[in-house]
Predict the 3D structure of the following.
Amino acid sequence: MDWRLFLSTFGMIFLAELGDKTQLSALTLTANSKKPVVIFLAASSALIIATLLGVLVGDALFRFIPEFYIRKIAALVFVVMGILLWFRVL
């Protein structure tokens, strides 16, 4: 296993997820349901499946589209999402 890649990916994803909508949703659902184990298992499963989809789609894209273009497209998507969130469209 490439531990350097593992740790850098873990660190980047962990920091990106802190305080995001997923974490706030889990907090709210736990407070409302009073069933933290169920919420943890459901949220963890959802994140695992979403990550799996991202990895599979990313792997497929990199086979047909050069990394340079994927990075530019990803950056553009983040900028557009930021603008939409800024103006409360999302």
User: Anything to note?
Assistant: The chain has a mean pLDDT of 91.
